[in-house]
């Protein structure tokens, strides 16, 4: 009888711990989201962090593009991952304030990109670009520079930065060099 009650108490204790863990995780996520929304985000210009985007990448070019894109989230205010689909570039994911998100809609926004060399950096109007992508929330203050980089025949990144032009030129050149190292085969 004692073993049964010990077993019963043990199971109840385990169940209680699971409930507590679930409640703590649920509460922590809400608190974390609230804190993230209230904390001002500042993109990093740290050269060692920039160099790190091209280190330890997988051989598969799809995985490589996804990992590099997620690493760029700390270096820019916002970004969009585009995938080539027979000449139409579909937005697959985006990041904002350091947090990445998949675009889950069935009708993903598409763009027709201009002819460009790999790793070339093009500037364009961020408001028009974000409107076409239906992602205006990435630049609510409408102050960001919009940069387009085609990293492979299949993937391109649209990056948004509110850095002053003086720092942005050097930063984007460092990022471009790191991307060249990361995608060189």
Write the layout of secondary structure elements.
Elements (H helix, E strand, L loop, with lengths): L1 H37 L8 H6 L8 H12 L5 E8 L2 E9 L2 E4 L7 E2 L9 E4 L1 H8 L11 E6 L4 E7 L3 H19 L2
Antiparallel strand pairs: 1-2, 1-7, 2-3, 2-4, 5-6, 6-7
Question: Can you describe this structure?
Answer:
By secondary structure, the chain is α+β, with helices and mostly antiparallel strands. It is about 45% helix and about 20% strand. It is built from five helices and seven strands, in the order H-H-H-E-E-E-E-E-H-E-E-H. The chain has helices at about 1-40, 45-50, 60-70, 125-135, 165-185; strands at about 80-85, 90-95, 100, 110, 120-125, 145-150, 155-160. Strands 1, 2, 3, 4, 5, 6 and 7 form a seven-stranded antiparallel β-sheet that branches. The longest helix has about 35 residues, at about 1-40. The radius of gyration is 21 Å and the shape is elongated. This is GTP cyclohydrolase.
């Amino acid at each position: 009888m004692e073993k049964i009650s010990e077993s019963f108490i043990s199971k109840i204790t385990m169940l209680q711990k699971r409930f507590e863990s679930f409640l703590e995780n649920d509460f922590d996520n809400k608190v974390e989201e609230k804190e993230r929304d209230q904390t001002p985000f500042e993109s990093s210009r740290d050269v060692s962090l920039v160099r790190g985007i091209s280190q330890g990448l997988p051989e598969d070019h799809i995985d490589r593009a996804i990992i590099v894109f997620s690493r760029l989230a700390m270096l820019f205010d916002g970004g969009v991952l585009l995938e080539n689909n027979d000449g139409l570039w579909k937005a697959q994911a985006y990041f904002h304030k350091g947090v990445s998100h998949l675009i889950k809609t069935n009708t993903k926004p598409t763009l027709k990109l201009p002819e460009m060399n790999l790793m070339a950096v093009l500037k364009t109007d961020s408001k028009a670009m974000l409107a076409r992508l239906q992602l205006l929330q990435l630049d609510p203050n409408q102050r960001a520079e919009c940069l387009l980089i085609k990293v492979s025949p299949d993937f391109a990144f649209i990056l948004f930065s509110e850095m002053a032009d003086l720092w942005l030129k050097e930063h984007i050149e460092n990022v471009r060099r790191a991307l060249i190292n990361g995608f060189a085969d």
